[in-house]
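Bumping with the actual sequence this time:
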Amino acid sequence: MTTKNKKAALMGFTGILLLFLVSACGNSITSQQPTSTPTPTELVVVEPPTPTTPPSPCGGLAGELEVQILVGPAEAVGLEPVSVGNIPFAVTTNQEPYLIEGSGSIDYADVLVREWGTYEVTMDMSVAVSGECIDNGQTGQLDLVMELVGSQLVVVEAEGFSGEYPWEGTQTRDLAFPLEEGATAEGEGWAVLLHLK
């Protein structure tokens, strides 16, 4: 091989080697370049607030029943005709059924004094209330049973006459009220008004 051919072969080999090196370096440079990989986006799920149940109108309910009882013999002679008692009550449970209990008494005493003598009426009653407050999704409702146990005595003293007229007994009344201040239930000889605290 001539020197000229050797130089040409060496130059060709050097050219191929350079081409190979440039190509290899280019790949190496390219491979060292930072690549941008997409960062996964966190998906934040915002849940709507849990709807809260409005408090029941029956929860913690308390009040009084204003009981008015007609005292028959009193009205007949011009005495105050009505005996009034306030019976406190309260819900005794923290969840449905909202049970109600209450108790109290009604006392009445009045005397009519005339020139002919006296006419005296006394009445003593114990009152028990039980039942339920119903949450009907609106104002609420009270369904109650009121039991009255008592006695009444009429004493008449008139110009040499003396008489006593006793009565004892039990009465039961079914009452239903919307849960509103001043709601009323009534019947013959009685009325009950609801007062809320």
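The tokens above came from a reply further down the thread. DSSP finds two helices and eight strands in the chain.
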